[in-house]
Amino acid sequence: MKTTESAWVRILLTTLALAFLGLFLLLPLVTVFVEALAKGVDAYWEALQEPDALAAIRLTLLIAAVSVVFNVIVGIAGAWCIAKYEFRGKAFLTTLIDLPFSVSPVVAGLIYVLVFGAQGWLGPWLSGHGIQIIFAVPGILLATLFVTFPFVARELIPLMQAQGKDEEQAAVVLGANGWQTFTRVTLPNIKWGLIYGVILCNARAMGEFGAVSVVSGHIRGETNTMPLHVEVLYNEYQSAAAFAVASLLALLALVTLAIKTVAEWRMERELRALAELPPERPPEPSNTQALFASGAVK
């Protein structure tokens, strides 16, 4: 299908798009690595191997890992409940899942301080039992879980709704238990949406600043994540060290983008292969049919 725009319009729009990408995406990314290596490779590695930097890296990876695991479990359960069942309060549950999108991360962090802080609702009881949440790792984890909560569920809900529940019902009728239905029917159908949601959740967990900044207390070597450690170094005029840690965050973001690209490519490849099947060729057996043909369910 030919476009109606003239050649100069297409060239102008393409040039503007490339200029925008170069100015606001590529240039800052290049600047991060240039500034990180401004004092040489030795200074770069020294900044990354500094004890506070290593502690920030470990904490960031720990928080991201726990957040991803939690959101995968809760996201699948929530999406399955919303997409496969009809019940009173379904719209309210959907609104709760979307709530972190409409609340500022700073406000979310402040809410946790008001609830779990020393002067908060539960603060005296927690202090009396020797439990510290705010200005400690549990508070950082809670804040990160809040801001990353919607990503997995939001990717799976429309996908599960579009697929319907016919295959799950067929599996149950033919004798499959709940776990077999999930692992052999539901999970293969949602794997690409799940991977995409995990990628988004992991990226947000590693890069979260606002909510974590409120609840962390900025204790160096203990409650500083990588974004917070970058802020501390930059405020102390250690720009090379700050950009070194920032470059590591940028590398993690690039790896995340590469995984996302591969996942999208694989999904498009499978969809294209299904679309190119000749009409006379019998379709491949569904996940439900394969489940029982393999003898997994008696």
Descriptive account of the structure:
With 298 residues, this protein is mainly α. The chain has 14 helices and no strands. The chain is 77% helix and 0% strand.
Give the tags.
298 residues; 77% helix; mainly alpha; globular
Which residues sit in consecutive blocks of at least 5 with pLDDT less than 50?
Answer: 280-285
Calculate Rg over CA atoms.
24 Å
Tell me the structural class. mainly alpha
Helical fraction equals over 70%
Number of helices: 14
Assembly type: single chain
N to C succession of SSEs: HHHHHHHHHHHHHH
How would a crystallographer describe the biggest sheet? none
Outline type: globular
Count the E strands. 0
Proportion of strand residues: under 5%
Distance between the termini: 52 Å
Average pLDDT over all residues: 85
